[in-house]
């Protein structure tokens, strides 16, 4: 029996393709590509610089194109779509699931998108237009409409016969939905139930009537948490009036979970989670430059604080040597808290009842760690510079800055959340600015008062 | 029909419980808790400070305890286990799936763990000891052994009858596995196939013989990528000889994906992904202190660089005011690259063939952004300080540091990966140290050569 270990078995294929490409053996590249799974080809495309990507796309099997497009991340998708004309896209679209197709079409520029719709058969066009009518990021935008529905007054035996006539069930089907004459969802029957109950029972006798549903306008973030918490494999999507509209399956939710996690991690470094690993240099440079501009402002604010104390710095150069330690430690302490709070907000650990407890706890940790490291650093600096006054000033400034850092690490994301700013994106920069300003101001300010 | 919107419907319950707790109405707390899903109770426990957590645990339904324990994150789990004695734990363990139980038992201190095993019935003990015999983090440690197997020479009709006699299928079953007389996996039959084919066909005629399997010692990280890439809901786990040992289901994989993502995000801030949001202050302080110690060393290294140029700083205090800008911009540029590379490593975008392309690309971005921001900053500084020499020195230092930052941002994680160091954990600190040292050294060094 064939042992296809996915990514792992794909990696020798990646090597084969790389060798064949470098020798210009395109026939061989094509042969290997045609043996690969769509998901692995997508990974290969994402892992290739733009020029290779184009060659690989041309050599891949056109019948797999729909599946490959669906597996690509947003920016790699956009770069591949540029290689296709409207006609090709429309013919690729024919065999795709509605939710996957909606994902692909959303990546198209408006003009091309209209062209593609024109080329599509009217039935496909209607399906897609419906899927695109739900706002991006809502349950409707990721649901699939291929639910299998049954009525509650028939026997399981009849259902079984109906399924055999149907001869095929949509991918990832694990549950049949029971609806009334108005398409109102009244229950569901897992396939496992269908297979194990007495076929003479009626659907109403075997169905679960307490079904967890997702309303069509629910944001995808909440949906990801629901699936994660409740171990769902699929869930029905209903209108505000309980009409069954479609279903969301775990494979799409896994994609969302991964995107959200990437967004948090990449966002903290000022990066877009869509960023293509092998995007052209100019595109990436332009994209990252905004964040560098913001950071330059933050760095200039910090410099302007030191500038207030230029006279003191001119008098005692040792202060200049030591002054970077204070913002650094405050920033790290604050960042630890920030990461904890961003995670807690994402998984839903924080509510109005417990935020005060959290603020008190993090401020307490800041105070304790501040005390500890202030003592350590004063010892180190005395040993190094032989000056107790500067050592004590540094210790006090560091203590204050680490306590403020802890407090800011919890208050900044909570405030941002309240004003609908994404703390994963803006929290780190705001925090660092606070700890830079407070750290430099307390250290140089106290030094000016005491020493100058 | 009941509309249980999970976390969302749970949140009014959270408020009710909070009110009832603050008024000491424990009977009411108990009543609300008994209506809640285990997953929501776990979320509530994770969202509560330790004292409240203990009260809530005592008031919750003992029949739900197993499920709740399984849903808790590692550190919250450890804190709840401390409230239970070995006997209670053993009785809770009786109704748990092996993989869930293994997760819980791994969180116990050794002495208690032996006690709990003693208290368990011998059959349970054997099951658990087997699950615990696979190393943590391997496929074996998260697999469930409750596979449903069939033989290939029987008819589908017989399978259907067998399932009805069985009367129940294990949770999350979407596929039956076909094994030979030696338990060798020879194929699988999805439930959807079973329901749609002609019952007179034999299993060998309807089964898929090209089954993707997971070898029992495969690391869980790779498994998460496989599920994500191939949209699996479950996958069979086999021994090195192809013997079917169990199966891994998507719900456990979703947990792994979330943990890995948290690990990357929290790790970049020097935090443990297990960290309990409401851990006691002393525990958290102790845990975070290691990272602060490492950062203090890094900050002292940076300070010792400035210290080399103390004479120059004493001469020109403006250098002290401006010197923090250079490491800051280099650090941000490097961190952007670092985040991109850590993500790329995690999803498998980087291999031996393309790492050189990536290094060249990121170095290029660093050069371009370095040029751009060096020009901007020299203008700003000239305008501010009216000194072209210092402005140019700052620009050159910044250009060099941003280019090095980009290069370090890609080389550091690739090198760490090669030496099996986790770049998500140690990459940021190593990078910042490089950009601090290079930034301060180039800026102050050039200033000393030119101005002093």
What features would you highlight for this structure?
homodimer, mainly alpha, MgtE N-terminal fold, CBS-domain, 3-stranded mixed β-sheet, 6 strands, magnesium ion transmembrane transporter activity (chains A, B)
Architecture overview:
- The structure is a homodimer of 452-residue chains.
- Chain A has 23 helices and six strands.
- The longest helix of chain A has 31 residues.
- In chain A, a hairpin with a 5-residue loop joins strand 2 and strand 3.
- In chain A, helix 1 packs antiparallel against helix 2, helix 3 crosses helix 5 and helix 16 packs parallel to helix 23.
- The first copy, chain A, is mainly alpha-helical and 452 residues long.
- Chain A folds into three domains: 121 residues, MgtE N-terminal domain-like (MgtE N-terminal fold); 118 residues, Roll (CBS-domain), CATH 3.10.580.10; 171 residues, Tetracycline Repressor, domain 2 (Orthogonal Bundle).
- A three-stranded mixed sheet of chain A has the order 1-2-3. In chain A, strands 4-5-6 form a three-stranded mixed sheet.
- In chain A, 68% of the residues lie in helices and 6% in strands.
- At the A-B interface, helix 1, helix 3, helix 12, strand 3 and helix 13 of A face helix 1, helix 3, helix 12, strand 3 and helix 13 of B.
């Amino acid at each position: 029996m064939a042992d296809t270990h996915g990514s792992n078995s794909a990696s020798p294929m990646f090597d084969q393709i790389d060798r064949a490409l470098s020798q210009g053996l395109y026939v061989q590249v094509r042969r290997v590509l045609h043996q690969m799974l769509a998901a692995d080809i997508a990974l290969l495309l994402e892992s290739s610089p733009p020029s290779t990507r184009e060659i690989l796309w041309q050599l891949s099997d056109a019948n797999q194109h729909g599946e490959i497009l669906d597996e690509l991340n947003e920016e790699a998708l956009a770069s591949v779509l540029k290689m296709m004309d409207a006609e090709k896209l429309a013919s690729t679209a024919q065999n795709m699931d509605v939710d996957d197709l909606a994902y692909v079409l959303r990546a198209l520029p408006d003009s091309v998108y209209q062209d593609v719709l024109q080329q599509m058969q009217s039935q496909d066009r209607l399906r897609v237009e419906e899927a695109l009518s739900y706002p991006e990021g809502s349950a409707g935008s990721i649901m699939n409409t291929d639910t299998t529905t049954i009525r509650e007054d028939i026997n399981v035996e009849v259902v079984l016969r109906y399924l055999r006539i149907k001869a095929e069930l949509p991918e990832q089907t694990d549950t049949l939905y029971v609806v009334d004459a108005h398409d109102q969802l009244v229950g569901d029957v897992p396939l496992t139930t269908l297979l194990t109950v007495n076929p003479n029972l009626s659907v109403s006798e075997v169905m679960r009537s307490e079904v967890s549903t997702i309303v069509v306008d629910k944001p995808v973030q909440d949906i990801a948490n629901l699936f994660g918490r409740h171990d769902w494999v699929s869930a029905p999507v209903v209108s505000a009036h309980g009409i069954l509209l479609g279903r969301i399956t775990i494979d799409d939710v896994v994609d969302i979970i991964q995107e959200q996690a990437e967004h948090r991690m990449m966002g903290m470094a000022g990066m877009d989670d869509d960023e293509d690993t092998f995007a052209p240099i100019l595109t990436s440079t332009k994209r990252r430059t905004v964040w560098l501009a913001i950071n330059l402002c933050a760095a200039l604010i910090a410099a302007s604080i030191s500038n207030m104390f230029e006279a003191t710095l001119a008098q005692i150069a040792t202060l200049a040597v030591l002054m970077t330690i204070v913002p650094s430690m405050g920033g790290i302490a604050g960042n630890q808290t920030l990461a904890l709070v961003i995670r807690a907000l994402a998984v839903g650990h924080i509510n109005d009842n417990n935020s005060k407890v959290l603020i008190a706890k993090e401020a307490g940790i800041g105070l304790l760690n501040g005390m500890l490291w202030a003592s350590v650093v004063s010892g180190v600096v005395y040993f190094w510079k032989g000056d107790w006054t500067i050592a004590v000033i540094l210790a006090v400034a560091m203590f204050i800055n680490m306590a403020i850092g802890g407090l800011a690490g919890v208050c900044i994301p909570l405030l941002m959340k309240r004003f609908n700013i994404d703390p994963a994106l803006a929290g780190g920069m705001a925090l660092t600015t606070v700890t830079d300003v407070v750290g430099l101001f307390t250290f140089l300010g106290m030094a000016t008062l005491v020493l100058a």
